[in-house]
Amino acid sequence: MEQVRLGMIGYKFMGKAHSHAYRDLPMFFPKTAKPVMKAICGRDAQGVQQAAKQFGWESWNTDWRELVQRDDIDLIDINAPSDAHKEIALAAAAAGKHVFCEKPLALTLADSREMLQAVEVAGVKHMVGFNYRFAPAVQLAKKLITEGRLGQIYHFRAWFLQDWIVDPAFPLVWRLQKEIAGSGSHGDLGAHLIDLAHFLVGGMTEVIGMNETFIKERPLPSSMTGLSAKGSNDAPKGPVTVDDATLFMARFESGALGSFEATRFAPGHRCTNAFEINGSKGSVKFDFERMNELQVYFTDDADDVQGFRRVLATDPSHAYADAWWPPGHTIGYEHTFIHETVELMQAIAEGRQPVPNFADGVKCQQVLEAVDWSIEQRRWVRIEEL
Ligand SMILES: NC(=O)c1ccc[n+]([C@@H]2O[C@H](COP(=O)([O-])OP(=O)(O)OC[C@H]3O[C@@H](n4cnc5c(N)ncnc54)[C@H](O)[C@@H]3O)[C@@H](O)[C@H]2O)c1
């Protein structure tokens, strides 16, 4: 398959990131199957029409059901809030379309399992949007682990810190409503950490967590998009029904120990998605705010030069880097989505499943829900219980 014809639902934060990726992909990865931006869907006619023009989509509409039925579309890309993922994915699979869905895959583990079953029964390709895997520095960490260069892994410790809702006057956007978002920092930020842990260290056996909602009521929003919104202190208030912060510990199947912290209440941290991995032969450290770098330490360095070294993952030997700029000319957030869509297009062209796919989405959801159980029941929960 030399081209994949796309229909996309949702055109704000993720819709824009995905649209940008589809536009850039053919220029930098010309050997990859070409994404053809057929149609974009949103509920507001004026808004979606403007987005279609601005982002470069051939057509637009306001009803995703029509989009899913179109004969000239091969893949449905879901960038609507999390409560809409399941219904759209099931309809897309039933119509024989490949499905690319943003994370978290669904509101619940049961829903995510239903989605996985639907795409498997339909025999279509499926992918879930864990884009941080695709930072070249993260791929380098994976390579070092896979090649045994860090030895036996003892620790995975990760933290995803943001600060965009510290102000109590920040309004009650959909991300703070359980029925739409599923959970708060846990499913939004923690889901990325869990996926990185699965990618880098493997499956978990048991977890125990704690969480908190620091601000219990917020003004209702007058408008919202992405991570920003407008509200007013005079506006009526509604309850926040998700966690502001969730922390948990985990044991991995490999015997490694994990600790995870996801919070939207860390002033000064705009998007600190970070991890550190310690093994018998060395350690690595990654922080998304310096996403081109991986800090690497090897125990067998000579005594007098031991220490973390900063590796800039922009050389042709690093994943995806040879498609971009000369070494040292760094890349950004949007490139994680371009690399993600390269994997999606390549997998469809080669007739294999992309990675990460809905099975990875389910695996992540299982840990999310196990942590929720552990918090409710105040005990360690084994992953196999779910
Ligand atoms: N991979 C990441 O790092 C990342 C980052 C942010 C969000 N997300 C995920 O992406 C999804 C979307 O989040 P966002 O930040 O882009 O949200 P957003 O609020 O910026 O945009 C949501 C879009 O969905 C549209 N929409 C909502 N309901 C719809 C419906 N029934 N039919 C058609 N369109 C509909 C809205 O009009 C809007 O265009 C969420 O699941 C979120 O968890 C992932």
From TrEMBL:
| Source species, domain of life | Bacteria
- One Pfam family here: GFO_IDH_MocA_C3
Residue span(s) of domain Gfo/Idh/MocA-like oxidoreductase N-terminal: 5-130
Decide whether keyword Kinase is in the record: no
Q: Keyword Oxidoreductase on this protein? A: yes
InterPro entries, per the entry: Gfo/Idh/MocA-like_OxRdtase_N, Gfo/Idh/MocA_oxidrdct_glycsds, GFO_IDH_MocA-like_dom
**EC id:** 1.1.1.-
Q: Which GO terms describe its molecular function?
A: oxidoreductase activity
Q: Which UniProt keywords apply?
A: Oxidoreductase
Q: What class of enzyme is it?
A: oxidoreductase
Q: Per the database record, which ranges form the GFO/IDH/MocA-like oxidoreductase domain?
A: 138-284
Protein name, per record: D-apiose dehydrogenase
Native organism is Paenibacillus allorhizosphaerae
